[in-house]
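Saturday, quiet lab. Running sequence design on the structure tokens for the scaffold JK sent over.
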């Protein structure tokens, strides 16, 4: 549903081809709604059948005709209706958080490696978003008023990433310390076993999922 209104919103700014829409999404609203090319073309076809957009074939030399899509009055009304609806909580499907939730089933070194890699990725994303905001504010252009809400959505995502960075960094520091302490304990245990000849069997903890 949101892809439909993402496309209508972008077409309300200016007519565009499916390729142009994909490129714009990758450069603007990707942090909100990321999609593939086939999903865009399928949604464009549905919007055209519903009378919310009109399409025009533009001839190209040595290439297939380029389809340029324009929002219709019906499409604008649908977009306005969507924008005026009460804001509801989104349905959350976050594979990263699901992997973290069941992280106790992974090898400790593996999950820590993946968490550190994820931390690096969101740091990079956050810095890119901050640079984007700075660039927009330096050259606001003629659409400064309209950009208020676009920048708000960007800042909200940046704030979310900052909190995630803090929590991930803290968790990884604590886990690395635990691993180091355990490593030192194991060395001491091996030394004691060599002297006593009575090895100790370590037990691996299992996550308590009784509340699920």
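Result came back. Writing it out in full:
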């Amino acid at each position: 549903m949101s892809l439909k209104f993402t496309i209508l919103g972008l077409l309300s700014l200016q007519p565009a081809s499916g390729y142009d829409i994909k490129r714009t999404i990758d450069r603007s609203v990707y942090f909100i709604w990321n999609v593939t090319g086939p999903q865009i073309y399928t949604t464009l076809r549905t919007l055209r059948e519903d009378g919310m957009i009109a399409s025009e074939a533009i001839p190209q030399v040595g290439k297939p005709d380029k389809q340029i899509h324009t929002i219709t009055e019906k499409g604008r009304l649908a977009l306005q209706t969507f924008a005026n609806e009460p804001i509801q909580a989104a349905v959350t499907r976050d594979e990263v958080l699901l992997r973290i939730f069941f992280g106790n089933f992974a090898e400790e070194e593996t999950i820590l490696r993946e968490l550190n890699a994820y931390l690096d990725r969101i740091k990079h994303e956050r810095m890119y978003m901050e640079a984007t905001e700075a660039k927009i504010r330096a050259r606001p252009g003629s659409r400064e008023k309209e950009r208020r809400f676009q920048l708000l959505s960007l800042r909200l995502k940046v704030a979310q990433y900052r909190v995630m960075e803090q929590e991930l960094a803290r968790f990884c520091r604590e886990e690395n310390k635990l691993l180091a302490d355990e490593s030192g304990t194991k060395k001491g245990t091996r030394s004691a076993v060599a002297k006593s000849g009575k090895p100790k069997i370590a037990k691996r903890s299992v996550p308590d999922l009784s509340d699920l």
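Notes for JK: Residues 147-196 form the longest helix (50 residues). Confidence is low (pLDDT under 50) at residues 198-212. Ask whether to fix the surface positions before the next round.
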